[in-house]
Amino acid sequence: MWILCSLNKPYDMQHFKDAAFSLSIDLKIIDPTKLVILNETEIEYYYQGEQLQAPAYVLNWNGCMNGKLEEQIEACLRASGTIICNSVTEINHWQDKFKWQVETNLPVAKSMKMHSSCLLDNLSLIEQKFDYPLVLKSDTGSLGMGVYKADNHNNLKQLVEVISLLDKTFKVHIEQFIDYTNDLRMYIIGDQYYLMERVATDDFRANVAQNATINDYPKSQITDDIFKQIRASYEAVVIGVDVLLTTDGYIICEINSAPGFTGIEQVHNIDIAKEIITTITTN
C-alpha cells in the first residue's frame, strides 16, 4: 500500500506507519514529487533509486496540493491495477470551494466569487447582497488559514484594501456568516462515521489548529442523514465534513480529503490510521 503525501504531516504519517506495522501491511509513504515513472512495455516505478512494484492500494493524502502530477500518477497506478482510494478527481472537486458549492445538492451558505483586482470596485455590491458579519476565504486552504471575518463596513474595506494591495492573484470567496448552534467535524471512514464538536476560543474559527476546544457529540437522525447524503454522493474512503447545525437544519461548509487525526482521536480514543488502513485493505 502507498500513501501519497508531500505535505508536512508528521503526526499523520507516523501514525500510518505504526498502524501498518501492527497490521503487518507493507506501507510506503511516497512524496509525489520524488516518484519517477517509466512507460514502456509495462509501467515501471522508481523512488529514491529503488524500483517499486505498483501497490495494491493507494491513498491520496496530499490535500490541496494535488495537481497534474498527482493526476498522472493516479492514471498510471490505475492502469497498473492499483485500487485508488480518495481520487484526485473528487479531491480537486472539493478544493474549489465555489465550484463545489455550485455543483453540489447539499445545503451550503450563500456565496460570491470574484478576483482580488475588482474587490474595491464591488464593495457596494457585496454589501447589497450580504449582511454583516460575512466571511472572506481564499480558494484553497487548511487549518483555518486564509479565512477572514468582516463585522462591518470598515472591517470589510480594510480587508479588501490589504488583499488588493498585497496579492494580485487572490481569488476571493465570500460567504454569509452562519449563525450556528454547533460546529461539527464528521469523520467518515468507509461505511461508518465519527463526530466531534468544535468550539472556537481565540477567534471565530473553530479549527483544532486554531486552538478550538473539542467535545464528543452524539449521533442523531440529522447526522445520520448527512452521512447518507455524503456517502451517496462521493466514493472516497476517508472524508472530513465540516457541518454547521442551525436552528433551521444544517449547512455543509466544506469537505476535506485529508482530515487530521488529532482531534477525533482524542475525543473517541481510537486509532484513526488503523481504522483507515483496515477499511481500505479489507473491503
Mean pLDDT: 89
Count the DSSP helices. Answer: 9
Percent strand equals 25-35%
SS content category: alpha+beta
Silhouette: globular
Major beta sheet, strand line-up = 14-13-12-15-16
Cα(first) to Cα(last) distance is 14 Å
Q: What Rg do the Cα atoms give?
A: 20 Å
Percentage of residues in helical conformation: 25-40%
Largest sheet: 5 strands, antiparallel
Overall number of strands: 16
Detail the poorly predicted runs. Answer: none
What secondary-structure arrangement, pairings included, does this model have?
Layout: E1 2-4, H1 10-22, E2 28-30, E3 35-39, E4 43-47, E5 50-52, E6 57-60, H2 68-79, E7 83-85, H3 88-95, H4 97-103, E8 111-115, H5 123-129, E9 134-137, E10 147-150, H6 153-166, E11 171-176, E12 182-189, E13 192-199, E14 213-216, H7 221-233, E15 238-246, E16 249-256, H8 262-268, H9 272-282
Parallel strand pairs: 1-2, 1-6, 6-7
Antiparallel strand pairs: 3-4, 4-5, 8-11, 9-10, 9-11, 12-13, 12-15, 13-14, 15-16
Please explain how this structure is put together.
The structure is a single chain. This protein is an alpha+beta fold. It contains nine helices and 16 strands. Strands 14-13-12-15-16 form a five-stranded antiparallel sheet. It has a four-stranded parallel sheet with strand order 2-1-6-7, with helices on one face. A four-stranded antiparallel sheet has the order 8-11-9-10. Helix 1 crosses helix 9. It is globular. The chain starts with a strand and ends with a helix.
